[in-house]
Amino acid sequence: MAVVVTEEIGLPSWDLYELSIPCTVFGKAQADLADPWYELMLCGTGEGERPKDADAAAGTGLVLRTGHGLDDLVGADTVIVPSVPDACVEEGKPLPEALILALRRAYDAGARMVSLCTGAFALAEAGLLDGRPATAHWQHTAQLAERYPKVRVDDSVLYVDDGDVLTSAGLTAGLDLCLHLVRRDFGAHVANQLARRMVVPAHRPGGQAQFIDLSVPATDDDALAPVLDWARSHLDRPLTVRDLALRAAMSPRTFYRRLQAATGTTPLQWLLTQRLGRAQSLLESTDLPIEKIGELSGLGTANNLRHHFLRHIGVSPSEYRRAWRQTVC
User: Fold this and answer.
1) What positions does the domain HTH araC/xylS-type occupy (predicted)?
2) Beta pairing, strands 159-161 & 78-81
């Protein structure tokens, strides 16, 4: 089990978190569960350079050094890329060519390839996700899809198992995928027992759709802002495209066109998204019955609320509320 480590100073804390996940799951022998266990190697991308200014050193301020290099990826049974530097995702900074070549060589040698969160950008750059389903943190899936159009990006799932190539969403979804690997390699009993020791669920219901921010995209169309604000304040009412168009002093056709141009979605889909967001907020912050939340959000009956939650969020309202309360606690 070879884990790629970006050797640099000032790694953000979330990168350290994702790096720690495979170290925790695979790095400590569990002889009473399975013997032999995994043999873990941390493989560095090269000597990191100390930034010359304080801003570049922001973050943890740690310098990471490993006992193995990229050449050691070849021959590993599984290669994991926990993340890539933010600059490679947000600013399009090129990934080290040596890393991309090493990933290709490892795959060609028969390794199972795994990414956690933004590590998917490295696998995509190596061409290993072409024509495959894949995921990453929902905040980065649009960038992944735009930069690598051959990848079938799914922003709704916690992880994707495509046989010899697996990808996960961000942060704790990486733990879900690592436990899934244990389940694949040693069976459900071993994975469940390991999850109990780590005090985490062996399997979480739903996908990352339940965590996606459903707030409306920003728009420069000042004429739409007042009517959209009004609609968000009256989601419990029956609202039609004609109602909103009249309030905006536009024809329904013009309103439809301008809202779609401003938000990238249709008026009815925009309303549904806002109502789902309202229902999520009420489930998180109140003890109101499901039926009442359906009414206040404009989604109608409890059955209708459940239908839309299962279809768009991936879990039932009760499961969503339970998961949120567990997260808060």
Assistant:
1) 225-323
2) unpaired
Token output for 106: 């490892």
C-alpha–C-alpha distance, residues 224 and 279, integer Å:
23
Give the DSSP letter string of 11-73: --HHHHHHHHHHHHHHSS--TTT-SS----EEEE-SPPPPPSSTGGG-SS------SB-GGGG
Q: Which residues are CB-neighbours of 308 under 8 A, at least 6 positions away?
A: 272, 275, 276, 299
The predicted model gives 77-96 an average pLDDT of 89
pLDDT band at 81 (very low <50, low <70, confident <90, very high): very high
2-208 matches 225-328 in fold: no
pLDDT digits (tens, 9 = 90+) for 94-107: 998 999 999 999 99
Residue type, 247: R
pLDDT at residue 47, as a whole number: 54
Task: List the structure tokens of 18.
Answer: 């994702």
Q: What is the pLDDT of residue 56?
A: 46
Mean pLDDT for 231-239 is 91
Torsions phi, psi of 208, nearest 5?
-80, 0
Pick the CATH number of 225-328 from 3.40.50.2020, 3.10.450.50, 2.102.10.10, 1.10.10.60: 1.10.10.60
Domain extent listing, the chain:
2-208, 225-328
CATH number at 2-208 = 3.40.50.880
Please answer whether residues 284 and 321 qualify as being in contact, where contact means their C-beta atoms are separated by less than 8 angstroms.
yes
